[in-house]
Design brief:
Layout: E1 3-11, E2 14-19, E3 25-29, H1 36-48, E4 67-74, E5 80-87, E6 94-97, E7 100-102, H2 105-111, E8 114-117, H3 123-126, H4 129-143, H5 147-166, H6 173-211, E9 217-222, H7 231-237, H8 239-245, E10 256-261, E11 264-265, H9 272-294, E12 299-302, H10 311-323, E13 327-332, E14 348-352, H11 355-359, E15 360-363, E16 365-366
Parallel strand pairs: 2-15, 3-13, 3-14, 8-12, 12-13
Antiparallel strand pairs: 1-2, 1-4, 4-5, 5-6, 6-7, 9-10, 10-11, 14-16
Bound molecules: adenosine-5'-triphosphate and magnesium ion.
Residues 12-13, 30, 32-38, 62-63, 333 line the site of adenosine-5'-triphosphate (ATP).
């Protein structure tokens, strides 16, 4: 379901801003520092309960405001209002869905599936495995309904085993039972991730192929422990070394999705533009698979789409977005760069973000 209303208060340079996004492609153009990324940040806060620019959401609160508030409405019958509020002094988020207070971010995530493509998305290639696990688990979470429960049970058992390790209670009777739990839920996580990946890979390669020819590019899943060994055995045999480290060293919490080109990590070879296309293909394929398996479409947040892409690639990227029938929020500093990409008939709403106009009031689409 697309967002048909968005209101931001006390976020970065916005004291108060309202807009009615179009159901499909929304383009925000404007000079540096006018608030384009902040707009995407607001939608991210609404759907994920956190910013993509700062770990501390309080840093996104406008300097002269005491709180930030993001409100959105998903089109539908009935429409679904969503809201997130964060007070400077409060430790907790106030999250609302259809007028009711909700306690878990996962409720927002499930209601408004988001995919973000921005310079941080390059971390999928160059960063630590945690970003790639997050990517993998986003997909599994949205299509396998027992994943969240499985993950929580696994985390609980992991916490208990780690506590026993730290306190040197290796012979404790509960150790074996927590290890059994850990092995059970760990194997289940691995199964769910694998099943999702089997469905994802063909969609990814098809999407990538449309953007750029990289026949040697490969995604390689590592489950977090030896491929040939049973997880329960691995845990039992690793007790001593785990105790020395003070935590459980192997398991699905260490899984990775290595992205390789031939025999090397892809990041060592790909140009910046090629990296952006690979990352974009990963993110576009997530949305395509979600749609295929659940009928839900996700909302794309794409910061500075034209950067690093040649004209032909921009066009193909935009064609995928149109083809997927998703809602997208795209920013650019260059108004010309995204004018001609769309086939006639594609519903595109263009917004010009200007300091004065967006600081307060309504942001209206401009004539194209
Ligand atoms: N906490 C804050 N309170 C008030 N203003 C802030 C805060 N944090 C950032 N800003 C300002 O908000 C403005 C919008 O920043 P934003 O990053 O959204 O701009 P942008 O349009 O994406 O720019 P660019 O084209 O350079 O990427 C900037 O002028 C920035 O200095
Ligand atoms: Mg920006």
């Amino acid at each position: 379901m697309p967002l048909d209303r968005l209101a931001l208060q006390g976020l970065r340079n916005f004291s108060s801003l309202e807009l009615s996004p179009g159901p499909r492609i929304n383009v925000f153009v404007g000079e540096n520092g006018t608030g384009k990324t902040s707009l995407l940040e607001g939608i991210h806060v609404l759907g994920m309960g956190r910013s993509f620019r700062t770990r501390q959401l309080r840093n996104a609160i406008a300097h002269d405001a005491s709180e930030l508030l993001v409100h959105g409405r998903l089109a539908g019958d009935p429409p679904v209002p969503m809201g997130v509020r964060r007070h400077r002094e409060a430790d907790e988020l106030d999250m609302r869905l259809s007028g009711e207070k909700v306690g878990r971010v996962s409720d927002l995530v499930q209601t408004l599936p988001l995919q973000l493509i921005n310079p941080d998305a390059f971390r999928l290639l160059e960063g630590s495995p945690s970003g790639r696990r997050e990517f993998l688990d986003w997909g599994v979470f949205h299509v396998k309904h027992d994943f969240l429960d499985t993950w929580k049970r696994y985390r609980r058992a992991l916490k208990h085993r780690n506590a026993l390790l730290r306190h040197g209670r290796m012979q404790d009777a509960s150790m074996a039972s927590w290890e059994r739990e850990l092995a059970h839920w760990g194997n289940r996580m691995d199964e769910l991730r694998r099943a999702w990946l089997d469905a994802f890979l063909p969609v990814f390669h098809e999407t990538l192929d449309g953007l750029i020819k990289l026949p040697d590019l490969e995604l390689r899943y590592a489950r977090g422990w030896d491929r040939k060994r049973d997880f329960a055995q691995v845990l039992e045999q690793a007790r001593d070394t785990d105790q020395q480290m003070g935590f459980t060293q192997q398991g699905p919490q260490r899984a990775d999705l290595a992205i390789r080109l031939g025999r090397r990590p892809a990041i060592e070879t790909l140009s910046r533009g090629q990296q952006k296309l690979v990352v974009s293909a990963l993110k576009l394929a997530q949305g395509r698979l979600l749609e295929r398996l659940t009928g839900l479409s996700c909302v794309y947040l794409i910061d500075d789409l034209p950067a690093e892409l040649d004209e032909g690639r921009r066009r193909i990227f935009c064609e995928w977005l149109v083809h997927m029938r998703c809602q997208a929020f795209i920013t650019s500093v260059d108004p010309g760069a995204l004018m001609e990409q769309w086939d006639p008939g594609t519903p595109v709403s263009m917004f010009h973000v200007k300091h004065v106009e967006v600081g307060q009031g309504q942001l209206l689409p401009m004539d194209r």
